[in-house]
Design a protein that fits this description.
homodimer; mainly alpha; Arc Repressor Mutant, subunit A; Tetracycline Repressor, domain 2; two-stranded antiparallel ribbon; 10 helices; 2 strands; 2% strand; Homeodomain-like_sf (chains A, B); DNA-binding (chains A, B); transcription (chains A, B)
Chain lengths: 233, 233
């Protein structure tokens, strides 16, 4: 109860300080090992005040996931500048993503590792945000296809698959970049563009990699033919 | 104790039946919700026998992770046939991966979702297997670079980044394919080849996507120059 008396600043400010401390502690020590005592100490407040504001360790963790997820989603949206050519949009979106994850490694660890590692409720929180980013990337790929000024023959299902692949690649690279000393956000973004863009770019231009004809035809979504490459000229 | 009397077949066979039941239950219901009662019932044995053989729910889950992880790793290794050109190796490795994850959706859910969602010990188990697959893909990309019969100017660090991107993309696509009715393993592999191979292929041929010169030079690992594309002829 004495804790409430230590309140000298607006609740919103105090709460952000608690969340800052919680993200750092959850991100670095893991959800299980993190204690409310050390989060309160790092935030410079009493433990009862943390409980008064955020209710429980579970609710505090959920608040961290939401804040970090929103910040990341907004950074990516702000980064992908509409109006640029598709490859420039993708480049600026990816640069924004890797810049954000590099600057907020604890937030990224909360979202991509901790939130998926401690139960279905937290995992569902990040799954919803991830779905939003995949939908955004899907639109970006569709816009790129339109920019290509031709029919790139991309069924909706394949575009969804490409967006899933791109998001999965970016997540994996962000983990790796944060664990590898000296890798910059620009380098990660350039690696992913080298990996992905020429592939997507060729696809937009109607040049498809097609599998060898050694195990039966591909039916349905991809529309790929047999043979090694099929540049459509 | 009466449970031991029900043993009519070799322990190894019985144990595999328990693991089959456990993988199915953990994969479909989640680690938390899965009960030892239902696993025993599905395996057609008594609960005490499950505890006698596998010790605890944690140990049973760990045994599932190891069995499924080993099976997946071996399927991918068997799929990527050495001696083929690099794109064919990658195609056959990816096809093997998506075929395995499609045929064993519960095993894949255990490895990629459940094992990372229920504590650091389980997460560390899959992280070690994932590192093995990344190392394997890294070697495959290096072999592809050698096949290209020229110096593709790929620093070791960038190859590691490319391998992380490819593995992350494949994981993400496997989740998506298993959740999307009608997507075949061949389609997933073709989508990823379309996404990734032309990108890697261009890179092997010395054609790099390079970022616009709007935010300073890239230093270090990627070696990318400024400008939009840089085909090295």
């Amino acid at each position: 109860m004495g804790a409430v008396k230590t309140k000298r600043m607006p609740r919103a400010v105090r709460e952000q300080q608690m969340l800052d401390a919680a993200v750092r502690t959850f991100g670095q020590r893991g959800y299980m090992a993190a204690s409310m005592d050390e989060i309160a100490e790092l935030a410079g407040v009493s433990k009862p005040l943390v409980y008064l504001y955020l209710n429980s360790k579970e609710d505090l963790f959920t608040a961290c996931i939401r804040r970090e997820g929103t910040a990341l989603t907004e950074a990516v949206r702000a980064g992908a500048r509409p109006g640029l050519p598709a490859d420039r949009q993708l480049w600026s979106g990816l640069t924004a993503f890797f810049t954000h994850t590099a600057r907020h490694p604890d937030g990224w660890a909360v979202l991509h590792l901790q939130a998926r590692t401690h139960g279905e409720v937290f995992a569902a929180e990040v799954a919803a945000m991830r779905a939003e980013i995949v939908a955004f990337v899907t639109q970006l790929i569709l816009a790129a296809a339109r920019d290509a000024h031709r029919d790139p023959d991309l069924p909706e299902r394949e575009v969804s698959g490409l967006a899933e692949a791109l998001v999965g690649a970016a997540e994996s690279l962000a983990d790796w970049a944060n664990a590898t000393p000296g890798v910059t956000a620009r380098q990660s973004a350039a690696t992913l563009m080298n990996f992905a863009w020429a592939g997507l770019g060729d696809l937009m231009a109607g040049r498809r990699w097609t599998p060898p004809d050694d195990s039966g035809p591909i039916t349905g979504a991809t529309g790929a033919q047999t043979g090694r490459t099929s540049p459509v000229t």
